[in-house]
Write a structure and sequence with these properties.
100 residues; 0% strand; single chain; mainly alpha
Amino acid sequence: MSTPPPAKHGDENRDPAASAARRAQQRDEANRDNPVTPASIRLAQIGVLGWTIVTPILLGLLAGHWLDRWLRTGVTFAAALLTVGAGLGMWFAWRWMHRQ
């Protein structure tokens, strides 16, 4: 087998591996130039993460409370949907963290 000829300047845009390697190198250089993430961005990320967890919990609690009042079941649905909301909130947060 023979090795392919070196890519010409116009051909590098067609090779996805070379393009991905070039973008990764540019990201590494940008991170080297600016290694510190500002505190405001970190605080914003913490806020998003918090609301990602709290919102499903509150929605589950609200829906459960409404069902309990409508069906006169005490706190059965509120407790169940609170737990479901907490589980969903944690799952959403886990997915969000792995995308970042």
